[in-house]
Task: inverse folding
């Protein structure tokens, strides 16, 4: 008689000993949908996770996921709003990474002045070639070709051939 009772107790304990939080449940469902390319479904799950996010790391994860998924479906305004939320919780190099991501979206939405204002004086960028390339693209669209070409030439002087190819394409 002891063994059946003990096995039922162990099964019950195993399922309830480490309950999954609502945040984790919704976030994981979002990741599953995103991995299948189902960005709309992922957004629905991530929005549910956002409502359950309490800790800073949870907010960081869900804001990043929402920004990426909205960007994937070309809903740039929503993506920008989530990158702005990320700006409010990041400092230093992480904040600069968010600004570099935002600069891509600002270029796509014609907000060239924002790119210049946020990237021109950035010190010790986590990815200097992205900063220079995006800043160059903004200068070009603002009619400042000389500055745009100067920045692309700096990227061309780098050792990274992939970034050189992008710079050459932009220069062309």
Result:
């Amino acid at each position: 008689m002891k063994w059946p009772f003990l096995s039922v107790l162990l099964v019950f304990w195993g399922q309830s000993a480490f309950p999954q939080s609502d945040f984790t449940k919704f976030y994981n469902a979002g990741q599953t949908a995103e991995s299948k390319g189902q960005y709309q479904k992922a957004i629905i799950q991530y929005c549910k996770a956002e409502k359950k996010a309490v800790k800073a790391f949870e907010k960081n994860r869900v804001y990043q996921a929402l920004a990426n998924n909205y960007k994937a479906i070309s809903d740039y305004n929503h993506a920008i709003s989530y990158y702005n939320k990320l700006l409010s919780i990041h400092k230093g190099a992480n904040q600069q990474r968010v600004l570099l991501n935002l600069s891509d979206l600002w270029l796509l939405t014609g907000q060239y002045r924002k790119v210049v204002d946020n990237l021109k004086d950035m010190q010790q960028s986590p990815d200097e070639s992205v900063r220079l390339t995006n800043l160059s693209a903004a200068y070009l669209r603002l009619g400042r070709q000389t500055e745009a070409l100067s920045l692309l030439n700096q990227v061309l002087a780098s050792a990274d051939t992939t970034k050189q190819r992008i710079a050459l394409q932009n220069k062309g």
